[in-house]
Amino acid sequence: MKKFKTIVLGGTFDHFHKGHESFLKHGLSISGRLIVGVTSDAYVGKIKNKKSKIKNIESYGERKKSVENFLNKIAVTKFEIIRIYDMFGTTLDKDFYADAILVSKNTRAGAEKINGERIKRGLHQFKIIISPQILAEDKKPISSFRIRNGEIDRRGKLYVKPTWLNKTLFLPQDLRDKLKDPWGKLIVQIDEKKLPKNFGLTAVGDETAKTFNNIGVRPTISIIDFKVARKKKFSDIAELGFSGKEKIIEAESPAGAITAELFLAITQIFRELNSDENYIIKIKGEDDLSVLPLILAAPLKFSVFYGQPNQGIIYIKIDEEIKNKAYSLVSKFITRGY
């Protein structure tokens, strides 16, 4: 027998993940009926204005569909999905009924505020039930923010393994062909008007960085080694069109390898990234594989551009598919030289 007749719960349910699944399953396990509030786009917009780091959130329709699909797949009890425009939703309506409200440890204060408003209106309080958090591979909670930020996938897998931050990884000979084909869209000529807006841009390679600087588009991150086709061509960042105001980080990385130093440099930049600063990673060695740690560490919707010899520039829009492809490849690297 179910403990409660009806439970109400709410959330944004962006980039629907393992933690959301557990949350909904918990509600279903203790109630005969579930009322699920999904935040409206207008409500998300208000949150965005207060928290500038909140971006790249799916539309209400996408988020509702994810919840609906999951519940249709597993629910043996009745459920209702409602659009909510503030933290109260319909919980203050005199005709609204639920025995309990399900929240996480971080959102308990919201449930207490709802109960406080219900008391003022002469309505009964909800029993507050705390649902346990689901942890990612690094023992930190899975969250939509961390997924959007490119740190983890929807099951909690880290895209950058901790061991990659203290060992040099070497590309095995049998995997070299996998890097010859373009990983994104080939662009013969950069059109500034068609460049992605509102998300960061990375230029990998000296000629690629120079191309963007010459048209007045300053990459958020540039990775250079002063070489073209593995031959020394430049000696100063001014030759590549940089202003000299960029923050420069140096990292060693020999050809055919990704060093822990390079991984650390890239992850450090994404941890402190802000819209007012531009970064240059100056490679001591060669930048031939640096696109891979960039893909793994970058937030979703970030843009990566790198040169394709004798063809043009490859554009990669960071999404979960490309991150998983890079993860699968780098996981096959070895930690000893040839």
Secondary-structure map:
Elements: E1 4-11, H1 18-30, E2 31-39, H2 41-50, H3 60-74, E3 78-84, E4 100-103, H4 108-120, E5 127-130, H5 144-148, E6 169-170, E7 185-187, E8 201-204, H6 206-214, E9 221-224, E10 227-228, E11 231-232, E12 247-253, E13 257-258, H7 260-272, E14 279-285, H8 291-297, E15 303-308, E16 312-317, H9 320-330
Parallel strand pairs: 1-2, 1-4, 2-3, 4-5, 8-9, 8-15, 9-14, 12-14
Antiparallel strand pairs: 6-13, 7-16, 10-11, 15-16
What does this structure look like?
This protein is 28% helix and 23% strand. The longest helix has 15 residues, at 60-74. It starts with a strand and ends in an 8-residue tail after the last helix. It has helices at 18-30, 41-50, 60-74, 108-120, 144-148, 206-214, 260-272, 291-297, 320-330; strands at 4-11, 31-39, 78-84, 100-103, 127-130, 169-170, 185-187, 201-204, 221-224, 227-228, 231-232, 247-253, 257-258, 279-285, 303-308, 312-317. It has 338 residues and is an alpha/beta fold. It has a 7-stranded mixed beta sheet, sandwiched between helices. It is elongated. It folds into 2 domains: 4-148, HUPs (Rossmann fold, 3-Layer(aba) Sandwich), CATH 3.40.50.620; 162-330, no CATH class. The protein has 9 helices and 16 strands. Helix 8 (291-297) packs across helix 9 (320-330).
List the keywords.
five-stranded parallel sheet, seven-stranded mixed sheet, 338 residues, 16 strands, alpha/beta, Rossmann fold
